[in-house]
Amino acid sequence: MTNNLKEKNIVLCVCGGIAAYKSAALLRLLIKAEAKVRVIMTQNAKAFVGPLTFEALSGQPVCTSLFDDREEGAIRHIEWANQADAVVIAPATANVIGKLANGIADDALTTFMLAVTCPKILCPSMNTIMYENRAMQRNLDILEADGYKLLAPGEGELACGTYGAGRLPEPADIADRLAHTLSPKDFKGKQILITAGPTLEPLDPVRFISNHSSGKMGYAIAGAGEYRGAEVILISGPTALPSPAGVRKIDVKTAREMADAVFEHMDKAHIIIKVAAVADYRPHETAVQKIKKNTDDMIVSMKKNIDILKEAGQRKKNQILVGFAAETQDLDKNAQKKLREKNLDMIAGNLVGDPSSGFGTDTNKVTLYFSDGSKEELQLMEKKSVADILLDRILKMVAENG
Ligand SMILES: Cc1cc2nc3c(=O)[nH]c(=O)nc-3n(C[C@H](O)[C@H](O)[C@H](O)COP(=O)(O)O)c2cc1C
Fold first, then answer.
1. Of ligand 1's atoms, which has the minimum distance to the CA of residue 97?
2. Element (H or E) spanning 99, and its range?
3. What are the structural domains of the chain?
4. Can you tell me which atom of ligand 1 is nearest the CA of 45?
């Protein structure tokens, strides 16, 4: 997957909030991603974390004042603002938010922010009552209208001992949103519908028939699509994965629920990618009460589920339809048959069974088959990288389709 932070000039602004210590972890992540980071701190932030920490981690002088340590011939706040590719304020205090919403520039950080034209991410972090205060919410609305990207605080136990909204998001999530801001938006204006995960077909109130799909491949494509500017709807069977940021997720359990959701949303989608491992069959009947082990044998009578991919292939208009084929043998033959029979534009096939590829792994070895009969064998790689290559090929097809 492309590292969108590499070589980028990032300015990390740290305010005087209790979560300032997390900024050091964020800085480490950004440096690890090979970004060039400069830090600006408010005077009050220095009461929480020393500038030396940020100086050591960034390898650059930290700016804490407009007037001290000025580099020769440079008006630092203007120069840094001109050079920045993105700015993140984490944590952003109620005080700084109030000042920024009103155009006040009475220290290095707020003066710098008035000179910034690149994307700006603001991470409010404070006590819940402060966060919910009307003046605070009014100020956030103003800043959002002014073009700031707001990263909503998480809910949880706060340093002040209360529980509620106000926690600074985890450094990895802030870094992720920064990378998102900097990624090229080549899918802007496109809607992608993705299905992922397994389906569960209930036998009784406590048992079901399912499969080993973890949802990782579909979630990786959803995340990559969102990064690239697409509006993504992810229809997901039950998985243990966190929802990808910025993606609309619809949770389903059974194949029938998945079919309903797909057919409700597919008309508006430009691209439909069906990664879910949908159960081919479901029990004829679901017992109302838990089935007791009264007999030595148990025979479950099964009924075929709707073939969602095939139905989508019949219904598709001027849309790109992509399927996945997880096979245990004869990959070429089986994948190409599925491609033809289901009227797909592309199918990504992989052999399951290899420990480094298939269900539950973070990597996958995929072969792409196209409707013109050609195929492309990809190396073993991270599912995130497979997702990006898949989207690259889809974008090419979209361009060719006009
Ligand atoms: C222990 C302590 C923790 C604080 N935590 C926060 C906080 O998490 N968020 C916040 O907005 N203000 C917090 N404050 C209040 C700010 O430090 C105060 O409003 C200060 O003026 C902010 O300065 P700055 O915005 O210039 O950094 C805290 C104050 C103290 C004493």
1. 25
2. helix 94-101
3. 9-182 (3.40.50.1950), 191-401 (3.40.50.10300)
4. 27
